[in-house]
Design a protein that fits this description.
The chain is mainly α. The chain is built from twelve helices and no strands.
Length: 287
Amino acid sequence: MLQKKLSLKRRIYVGTMRTLMFFSVGLTCALVLFLICFCLWRGLPNITWKLLSTKPSYLTESIGILPDILNTLYIVIATLFFVLPLGVGAAIYLTEYAQNKRLVGIIEYASETLSGIPSIIYGLVGMLFFCQFLNMQTSLLAGSFTLVIMNLPTIMRTTQESLKTVPQSYREGAFGLGAGKWRVIRTVVLPGCVDGIITGCILSVGRILGESAALLFTAGFAHALNGFFDGLGSAGATLTVALYVYAKEQGEFEVAFAIAALLMLLTLLINLAADFIGRMFKKRRNA
């Protein structure tokens, strides 16, 4: 009798937990699908070639987002140019070279703390340090340096976890053949975890594309059409900042939803590319 009661309670408990689990999964998937479908439904009809290939004209009152697309491209390139060597190099040092475990723990704790700081604080510090103290003024370069600090923990942690997946026997075998420390890292360790590093880099691009709060303080709102080097030295609005300006300041919700749909498509493509490249390198490594 007691065993039947325990069995009944267990079945009730398991059924309740399973129901809650399926409900949580269904609710999460429903929210994601709703957000994607709603943005695409409202935004795709407003995406035109004229919108994508022209700049705003206040004389004719026409709207174009070509400067915003280019500014986004410029700031992604500038941010990756600085954050990749710093993040990957720091991860290699902490994983392969650092002997003081307490120092490694302090640096890892600091990077985790940095990853949890709200982006608006990064924007405030970037405005005070890069724009004013270093006299960069409001520019894409100041915004990219701010994004470097924001994305450095992501690159470091993903690279560290990827380096730890390489078996220690690979390193010992290379050392046994007489290879030096850097040669082992360059020819054995990095090729063995390049899939995780590239995946982390691609995902950080998605975070750069979606950042707006920090860039409001550091990069500005300008919609000017500039070249790469001229654009980095001048103020410019990225797609996310332009979305805020058109929706909040000008009330152009059609353009705002068009930018939102464009960002949504870019984010989906980035996630698919990260998954595809990770699978490709993993398959090549196991071949």
